[in-house]
Sequence to fold (843 residues):
Amino acid sequence: RDEQEGFAQADLWPNYAFTPDGKSLIYSNHGKIDRLNLATLQVTNIPFTVHVEQYLAPRVAWEEHVESGPINAKLLRWPEQSPDGKWIVFDAFGRVWLQQMNGSQTVGEPKRLTSNDASLPPREYAPSFSADGNWIVYVTWSDAEGGHIWKAPVSGGAPVKLTKSAGHFANPVFSPKGDKIAVIQGSGLEFRGHQPEEEQYFEIRWLPAEGGDPQFITTVNLADTLKFHPQVFWNKDSDRVYFRDPVPPQKPTDDPKNDLVSVRLDGTDKKRFLRFPAVGDIVPSPDENWIVFTSRDNVYVTALPKTGMKEPPEVGIKEGSVPVWRLSDEAGGYVTWANGGKTITWELGNTFHRLTLESAIQFVQDQKRKAEEEKKGENKEDKKAGAEQKEEEKPRVPKSEAIVLKLTMPRPAPEGSVLLHGARVITMKGDEVLENADVLVTGNRIKAIGAAGKVTGSSDAKVIDVTGKTIIPGLIDTHAHLHYSAFEIFPEMKWQYVANLAYGVTTTYDPSAPSLDVFSQAEMVEAGVMMGPRIYSSGDVLYGGQQTDIWAEVNNQDDANRQVKRMQAYGARMIKVYQQPRREQRIWFAEACRKMHMLMTAEGAGELWTDLSMVTDGFTAFEHSLPVELHKDVIEFFAKSGTYYTPTLIVGYGGPWAEQYYYQEKNPHDDAKLNRFTPHLFLDPSSRRHVWISLDEYHFPTIAYGAAEVMRAGGNVSLGAHGELQGLGAHWELWAMAGENAKALGLPGGMTPMETLKACTINAADKIGFAPDLGSIEAGKLADLVILDGNPLENIYNTNTAHWVMKNGYLYDANTMREEWPEQKDLPKFFWQKNSETTTAAK
Fold:
């Protein structure tokens, strides 16, 4: 197969050459070298043997236990300091919290702004102080009722609901006079059965601080930024609002740009002040003299023009018509102002940074003076000393004050014991299969496994008869995209999470997700306030392409260290290096990960030689398929390296992939279980209007056969379903690994059922560093199990016969996600099912 359906970095066909006499053509053919006689068209093989000694860097790999004990919040959202400096408000675990301060010192533990009163909404987001510091305004969400705007007194007391009608609200902010609140409002598409990420624009509205109907100001289009919701800010006279206005590109190749604009409260008299590239936050100071903004996860400040203009001056990080100064070293987000505009604040993970504007200006002036002195040669001694100083030791930015905010939540686990009696248990401890066995679970861990009726310590356990069923470890999807939805304002239940759990996926690793969303939701799952599998992620990828706001620029080892440290602060354990173009850049990341005890994977991107270089340099893993058939050289190379290969056959490079095959051959649209957990938006398009492809045109069986050969040679392969179809997609991927449609291409097959199960259990656990606790059924490990009606060793399709799913000791009916142990609780409706009598897709 040629590379017309791939990326063709090394041309469409393998290389070939004429012999010096011009009578023959030499070319590669299925791992061999052949000679074609141009006169007779006779093909002969040229035998060859090559002895290779190839250095392999030590693979970046760690084994750890899954965290236990109290959950430490690693990512705090919307942090803001009170006007008097005595409080810091922030959001974590879907609730608003207050941390008391005494100067630079925290006082006690953070406390809830509101109570656990059942009448209050279950989700609280986007808190902000009033100008007098007495109130905090925030928004809420309930899957049953929608969202509202609330305010609550800082001193304690009952919160006040300010809106009468439910909606989708975000980022409320008091006016300086304290009499109004500006807010971002969606169109309410959630109440029409749609998903929040379908929103095409937002509205800016205002309402009286005492409550009332939000009044329309203007609409604002979506911007190309890491945050989904726009922000709105008041001018100092409380009669205008500032916001970001995306500038339509003049041609498709133009980089996105955004103007900072202001309008009156009736939406008129729009004024443009500055033009930005695709940056993150854009926040004017309360006195309207300065702008602080984020780009590539760092914080910058520049001056705000006094008057608007038709064509505003352009702001650039390195080049622009206005001066810009960087304030943060490693990273920063949720930037805002404090002390009436005298202090700039931002967060990195659970650390709140403060920097006075005065010290920032002084730092810039000092650096400018030193540069001028060095240029003039007026201070030769300092110049000599500076030359001897390592580049990474030089002060890059002014030093901010860093305050660590420590919030912990108890980690839930069921009480008591449950005995699963009489099942076949495929333990994943080697090839071990126990017939007619008992599995005893106490709390959230497996206590014992043994022959039926022989497991001790189970006299008081609840017994569940699973005779005739098969128990396997919970599936682990190591390339699971679950987080390009419900940005920032999270629902009570995320359907992607529930769908995966229903299909037996109990742990996921998402190798590309918005950091501010994925790690917050992961903590909510761990705290038991959101249902889902265990959630791990790289967060934002470390992108090598020079797109303005997501480019992870790396020019030396120190840059790589900072990037890895940034992702570690957000909660990542395994970073994703995404198409960093130079090998030295990728090696810097590998060295940074070794130093900081981080795992690493990479975007494969269908680039064979780049992928092989990353294997050579010790990457933990890489994602996506090698787009060509593999032979002994590459197979042995992979096997000896230990690097994990996650081929994502469901989107396999080089030709039609497995997702298209299963939509064509399996009719998932009429799957009642899938309909129960999947909105029409995500199920109908591909299942009702798919393209028909001849079976012998599919390429994924070739990739699957190569992956199987890597595993049989002693290499590491793991499952990744790419988020193409939540839950069921993991089974599509493992069936494809097992040789689905191989006969149509004349291939002997793929992995055996046992090999396939290893790829989605113990191997997958090892890839993400958690094999000591996950991936097999052994005493002491976490109780993540799938109880199947059928035996997957006899028929691999039986992986999709889940009767019950157990995650962390909690047992659920796999078809309805009703909790069966330790309590009995029905699954509530998703918000998009609220107004529907049926949850099946339209037929």
Notes: The longest helix spans residues 357-376. Confidence is low (pLDDT under 50) at residues 387-393, 837-843. The domain at 474-774 is CATH 3.20.20.140 (TIM Barrel). The two ends are 38 Å apart (CA to CA).
